[in-house]
Structure formats: C-alpha cells, structure tokens
Amino acid sequence: MTENEAMALIRRLLGTTNDINLYPFEFGWLAKEQLSAEERAAGMHVGHGSFIIDQTGIVTAQSSLPVRLLIKRYIEARREGRIAGRQVWPRVNQPG
Predict the structure, then answer these.
(1) Pairing of the two strands 20-25 and 28-33
(2) Does the residue 70 lie in any domain?
C-alpha cells in the first residue's frame, strides 16, 4: 500500500473533507483528522482519536493518546504478531 492509497482509504472511511495528517512509520501510517474551528468549538475534539492504516490494508481505531505513544504501542504489538486497536476495515462480521 502506498501513502496515496492509505490517504484515499482513510478519506473514504471517514467521509470527511477535513485535512488529515498522516504520520508514516515502519508498519504503515497513523492518520489524524484535523477538525474545523466549528467542530472544536462544539467540543468534538474531546477524546478525538486517530486511526492506523497498516501497510496490509487493515485499519484500526486508536485512542486520543499522543501520536508517538500510539505508534510505539502499535509497533510493539505488530512485532509480537498482533494488531493493536479496534479493527474498522475491513469490516469484521459481528455476531448478530
């Protein structure tokens, strides 16, 4: 997966026109949507998380912890053979 493909995927999943910052690291990219002034004023920034787009195409929702800490935790998990965060893409079938 390329950076352009990662950006296109996260834009499609979020359905946003806001800017998105991508932070590359060895297993993919951390994506953080930049909220508008109006969205921040409405309190949407509180607990505003981020997403990791793994180079394999798996996207996981992450908490609102600092970018560097999230990347560090994700790298540790991947080196242990795990994926950290809640998988949002591809969609996982929910028992129903």
Answers:
(1) antiparallel
(2) yes
- CB neighbours of residue 76 within 10 Å: 11
> 12: Cβ–Cβ under 8 A, 6 or more apart, which residues?
none
Most confident of 10-19, 20-29, 38-47: 20-29
Give how many domains the chain has, as a whole number.
1
Assess if residue 94 is contained within a domain.
no
Domain that holds residue 38: 3-89
What's residue 82's pLDDT? 94
Q: Is residue 71 part of a domain?
A: yes
DSSP H helical segments within the chain, as ranges? 3-14, 37-41, 67-79
Cβ proximity of 3 and 29 under 8 Å: yes
CB 28 within 8 A of CB 52: yes
Torsions phi, psi of 53, nearest 5?
Answer: -100, 105
